[in-house]
UniProtKB/TrEMBL annotation:
Domain HTH araC/xylS-type, first and last residues per copy: 215-303
Family annotation (CDD domains): GATase1_AraC_1 (cd03137)
Record keywords, A-Z: Transcription, Transcription regulation
The organism's place on the tree of life at top rank: Bacteria
Keyword Transcription set for record: yes
Taxonomic placement: Bacteria, Bacillati, Actinomycetota, Actinomycetes, Kitasatosporales
SUPFAM superfamilies for this protein: Class I glutamine amidotransferase-like (SSF52317), Homeodomain-like (SSF46689)
Protein name: GlxA family transcriptional regulator
Length: 303
């Protein structure tokens, strides 16, 4: 079980907190348990939206597999951000030094900067605050106009709703893109991509739609892409005709048929195996191609 500890600062934005918290809570509903804690330097935390929050004053025991996340707050300028005590900043530094991950949403990057955790690392924040973040922490590498960055267990995201993207990225890293896609689907949000961060799987790339029938078909293909799954069997499993499934699938994925989607998954996995030393023939067998020539043709077509 992993622990997610949120450091709450007065004036925080509710969505900066609630978005990531919902992602981890939903992941727990699917069998990957998380414990969520809310810590602050005062028991009652006012929020930017007027709803006060009750927090604990002591830090839980955290290990290297755990995460501290700092939601952002309303700030016209980072220089006028709320005071964050030396003990909290030291806890952030110590957790990272012990192998743990720290993260921020929006103005929360200021807390990581004060803790010295942005020095020499890529980071981002809300577009209105990017220039000031770069001025305040000249040793940080501020990446502008991206949803999130990840650098040496320091993960930062842009404004407000991007905290959901950050959390989905962490879930995909820990549990695989299929789990992240399932969580995004349950939350009725797009499993969005960050243009400056490489995406590891088509399981997320073609999930930015709200068609439940297609999602169920993709769930089956994601789980068994290396096994034969003929269109009649796939259509029967999701309760529609072959023609309907093909039409819905093509529309939802921007032109892919179920077979082409399965081939894309196989190709992606094969490319990974080849990059780690497998031969083309061995990779083809591992991902379910009976004839290695099919893999060669797909690779040539991609190139």
């Amino acid at each position: 079980m992993s622990h997610i500890a949120f450091l709450l600062v007065p004036g925080l934005h509710l969505l900066d907190l609630a978005g990531p918290a919902q992602v981890f809570s939903t992941t727990a509903d699917f069998g990957d348990p998380y414990t969520l804690s809310y810590i602050a330097e005062q028991a009652l935390i006012p929020t930017a939206q007027g709803l006060p929050l009750v927090a604990r004053l002591d830090w839980p025991e955290l290990g290297p597999e755990d995460l501290i996340l700092v939601p952002g707050w309303r700030a016209l300028a980072l220089a006028t951000s709320p005071v964050i005590g030396a003990a909290s900043l030291q806890f952030l530094r110590d957790h990272h030094a012990r192998g743990g991950t720290v993260a921020s949403v929006c103005a929360g990057a200021e807390a990581l900067g004060r803790a010295g955790l942005l020095d020499g690392r890529r980071c981002t924040t809300h577009h209105d605050l990017q220039d000031e973040l770069a001025r305040r922490y000249p040793r940080a590498v501020v990446i502008r106009d991206v949803l999130y960055t990840a650098d040496d267990r320091v993960v930062t995201s842009a404004g407000i709703a991007s905290g959901i993207d950050l959390a989905l990225h962490l879930i995909a890293t820990r549990h695989g893109p299929a789990v992240a896609a399932q969580v995004a689907r349950n939350m009725v949000v797009y499993a969005r991509r960050n243009g400056h961060e490489p995406q590891d799987s088509a399981m997320l790339r073609y999930r930015s739609h709200l068609d439940d029938t297609v999602h169920r078909a993709q769930d089956l293909l994601d789980a068994s892409f290396d096994q034969p799954l003929p269109l009649p069997a796939l259509a029967a499993a999701v309760g529609v005709s072959e023609r309907t499934l093909t039409r819905l699938f093509t529309r939802a994925t921007g032109g892919l048929t179920p077979l082409r989607y399965q081939q894309t998954l196989r190709l992606e996995r094969a490319q990974h195996l080849i990059s780690h030393g497998a031969t083309v023939d061995a990779a083809a067998r591992a991902v379910g191609f009976e004839d290695p020539r099919m893999l060669r043709r797909l690779r040539a077509r991609e190139i």
